[in-house]
Structure formats: C-alpha cells, structure tokens
C-alpha cells in the first residue's frame, strides 16, 4: 500500500499552515489500498451474485502530464496511470448471458451477448458491453460468451481522470482471461477505444485507454499516437522530494462532447488547409511561415496549439532523457505552464475553475501547473515540492472559496501500474 508518507508528504492529511481558516483547510487524499479494494470487489460480487468470482481485474485512471488535445492529430503525449482504479470481479458462466452490476449504480444489464450491437445498451453498461462486442473478432464462433461482472469504480467520476477508460480496460482484462483470448495489450487498448467510439458513441482519441493499459509503476508513458507505440519514461517524483498534485475542480462539465467534437473538427480543418494528413506532419520550425496560410483566425489558433504542444512534448521528453526531473524541474515546469496557456488562449478548452486553480498553484510556488484531460471542467495538475503540496492545495482551496466556487478535491498522482489481474 502506498501512503502519503511514501510520497514524501506528512501523514496528517489536514493542512496546518498559519492563518488557515475553514475555507482553506484541505484534505489531501493518499493513494487507495489496491489489495483491500480488490478484496472489496470480490466481496461485492459474492454478495450480489451469490457465488465466488473467477477473478478480479482492475485498470487505473490517468492524468496526462503533457500533450493535450493532440492524440487525434497523431501527436505525442506523456500520461501516467494514477492509483485510483476501476475493479471488475467476474466469472464465466456456461450461457450467453452477460450480466453486469455496479457498486456505484442501481442500473443493471442482463442481455444475450450474441445480441450486442451499437445502440442496444444505454448508460455506463454500454462501456462494459461495448468491450465484449469490440473483442468479438478475437473470440472463436463456438465460444459461449456468458459472464457475470461486478464493477467497483474508484476513479472519481466527472473529474477528467478517465473513469470510463479505467472501466473499459478493467473489463477488457477480465474478458481476455475469462475467455482465454490471446490479444496483445495494444489490441485491448484498441478494443477499449472501439467500445467507447463505436458502441457507446462517445468521442476519444486513445490517450486514456493507452495510459490505462500500458503504464508502468514509477514511470510516465511516452505515447506516439501515430502508431500507438509507447515507452516508459522515469517519473519518480517522490524519490526526488517532488509531488504531482491533482486538483479535481468539480466544475460542471457542460457541452463537453459538443465542444470536444468541435475542437477535433477545427484541427482537421487546419490539417486540410495546410495540405497535410494530420498536424503532426507540420514542421514546427516552419510554423510562422505556414500559419498565415490558414485564413480562419480561430482555426489558425487551434493549429498553433496542436503544433506547439507536440513540440513541447518533444522538449519535455528530451529533458527527461538528459537528466532527472529534479535537475530540470524549472524547464519542465515552464513547459507545463506553456501548455496550459496555449489550451486557455489558443484551444479555448479551459473554464474559470481550471484557470484559477492553475494561477493559485503557480502563485503558491508550484514549479508548473496545467489543466489535464479534455478540459471544460475536470482536473488540474501542479508539480510541487513534496513538502509544499499542502500549502499549494490550501492556496487553491482559498482561491476557490474567494471566487465562490464549490470546494475542490485534492489527490496525489503516484505513477501506477496499468491494467492487470488482482486476484
Ligand atoms: C479526452 C479524450 C482523449 C484526449 C483528451 C485531450 O480525455 O478522451 O482522447 O483527446 O481528452 O488530450
């Protein structure tokens, strides 16, 4: 089990700085205990279905450290898995019934697996059923597909930390084992993406599912979205007395899907205007010459974000290859800051809460801070001295209280292991 102390933080989660009042006293959640959570999922399965499951599988949520809104333009990203996971306790049954329940919802699914088709399942169970549907090409025709699944999702919902990818990827691991498939991790990533886009009808570029399946403990993941190739990059912040503070701003997501689709359309328009397949193909050193060829001012700014963000990821990766995070903390932090500013000004996917959290973190001494994920609400990350995480969190909470925003929630982002079997 990883504790706050492991992350270089005081055990007492209560802020204790001077001049703290109720509004700025914050709870900094330590990492959940994975073993205990897996046992809980097993117990929930037994309580609900009345027998012991064949196993428990889980997959993590993610934060994206840098490389935002570039995955759908063949870009580069550096996400990491967080310690909050979604658990799937499951058993194969000698039928074709797919029965799915969740500790977080009253909604249940009970359907003949052979009848699965896009549009047949609504709400969160679509993310589960969609994975079985997407894995069909890997399942031999004579195999019965019946199974019972109990979901226990512990990735905060609506926080931009990829609770849906964690759900899909945990289920993909469970199905791989239960039906003795021989898919590669990348094929499971692809099945999770297909489940979300083609079955559940939501838009995603693949960053979240890649991070959830392919991340390694203690590392961030360098992800090339052109071919979804990855390599782990060292990201041991705790060992260097640093921490990555996640702030769930709890800002209401509104029109997220529509805005996400609109940004993708803008970036596709920009690629067409520039005569390239995707914005990854634009030579960043020629940026100032090529941008004026885009006539629409908004599309031009969208292109500038994507092209410069991919360059920031290259710079981030080079810094990590040439020394420790501690050695390059100022330059890495500056790249996080520049990423946020570009998402705010050029890509226009931030909201007040995201901007206020980032400004407050910077003002309280963070080395760098940015929104993470799709935006329009959700979470920010701040790279901070481990001993200052409480003080930065308190500053953000204070800034939120002063603006009359709902109180945010704080977590530590400890780089965790991707999807796998727990029990
Ligand atoms: C959401 C999508 C990802 C990615 C991010 C922005 O999380 O699911 O595919 O596009 O937004 O980087």
From TrEMBL:
Residues 127-215 form the GHMP kinase N-terminal domain. PROSITE patterns: GALACTOKINASE, GHMP_KINASES_ATP. Pfam families: GalKase_gal_bdg (PF10509), GHMP_kinases_C (PF08544), GHMP_kinases_N (PF00288). Keywords: ATP-binding, Carbohydrate metabolism, Cytoplasm, Galactose metabolism, Kinase, Magnesium, Metal-binding, Nucleotide-binding, Transferase. One of its GO terms (molecular function) is ATP binding. The keyword Metal-binding applies. Residues 1-25 are annotated as: Disordered. Residues 13-25 have a biased composition (Polar residues). Its EC number is 2.7.1.6. The keyword ATP-binding applies. GO terms for biological process: galactose metabolic process. Residues 44-92 form the Galactokinase N-terminal domain. Residues 325-400 form the GHMP kinase C-terminal domain. GO terms for cellular component: cytosol. Belongs to the GHMP kinase family. GalK subfamily. This is Galactokinase. It comes from Candidatus Brachybacterium merdavium. The gene is galK.
